[in-house]
Amino acid sequence: MAEAKSASGALASQPVERPLSPHLQVYRMTISMFMSIMHRMTGAALYFGTLLLAAWLVSAAIGPEAFDTVNGLFNTVLGKLVLIGYTWALFNHALGGIRHFIWDSIHGYDLKTVDRMSWMTLLGSLALTGAVWGYVVASRGGL
Amino acid sequence: MTLRTPMKNVRHLGSAKEGTDHFWKSRVTAVANLVLTGFLVAFLVEHAGSDHAALKTALGSPVVAVPLILLALSAAIHMKLGMQVIIEDYVHGEGTRIATLLLNTFFATSVGAALVFAVLKLSLGV
């Protein structure tokens, strides 16, 4: 790549020391900030987590042996933990999405409501995850 | 004298030339995902742990297969749009950015295609 010289003679591609605007580390953590970060993190987790669903369905499309292998992996302790985490990420991101729809409609911008909706997203996602896996345990008599 | 024409105001596309396209698509797919993942969770609760034959029978029904295919398409687009924003925020080198943006598109498209193919194959039972 051609490297342009700036007026001072420094290479334009080299980073220039400039003052940085305040970033994450200078702010006290708030619930709305935490849930905003969680929305992005769960989104990224779900992005790769879709591979779990793909592994399940594609292995089934390949044949019963491949399907049994994948099911066997999901049935390990680590596999179940990953699936529970995936469930939580899904509900967290879904409820966070509903929060964004409310904001898109130009509602819920006063700080009290922002905080309340953030807590509802967190607690709601935990409750829904507990409900789904509680149902699974209850209906099958175990994990 | 200005060389700007009223056309730019009519088109409302801004300097990125795509207007609210990214925002709107991510919202449309989000609404679809909200409904379709509700269906997916219910389906998984019923069928996670099913044997191969039972899963095939379940997917044989269009009432199950069609929502799953719709979810695969909607989720793939939503994934691509969301990860694109993350990449544009954090990946600064021009070459690496273009490369990761390309990888992102290919990954989302591949996962979507794999899911659609798997559902179709199981459903049509070939």
Task: Describe this protein's structure.
The complex is a heterodimer of chains A (143) and B (126). Chain A is extended, with a radius of gyration of 22 Å. Chain A is built from 4 helices and no strands. With 143 residues, chain A is mainly alpha-helical. Chain A has one domain (30-140): 3 helical TM bundles of succinate and fumarate reductases (Up-down Bundle). With 126 residues, chain B is mainly α. Chain B has one domain (20-124): Fumarate reductase/succinate dehydrogenase, transmembrane subunit (3 helical TM bundles of succinate and fumarate reductases). Chain B is built from 5 helices and no strands. Chain B is elongated. The model of chain B has no long low-confidence stretch (mean pLDDT 93). Chains A and B meet through helix 1, helix 2, helix 3 and helix 4 of A and helix 2, helix 3, helix 4 and helix 5 of B.
> Biggest sheet of chain A: strands, sense, closure?
none
Spatial separation of the terminal alpha carbons of chain A: 56 Å
Q: What is the overall shape of chain B?
A: elongated
**CATH architecture classification name of chain B:** Up-down Bundle
Poorly predicted runs of chain A are 1-7
Subunit organisation of the chains: heterodimer
Number of domains of chain A: 1
Uncertain segments of chain B of ≥5 residues (pLDDT<50)? none
Write the layout of secondary structure elements.
The complex is a heterodimer of chains A (143) and B (126).
Chain A: H1 31-62, H2 64-74, H3 77-104, H4 111-140
Helix pairs in contact in A: 1-2, 1-3, 1-4, 3-4
Chain B: H1 7-11, H2 21-47, H3 52-59, H4 62-90, H5 94-124
Helix pairs in contact in B: 2-4, 3-5, 4-5
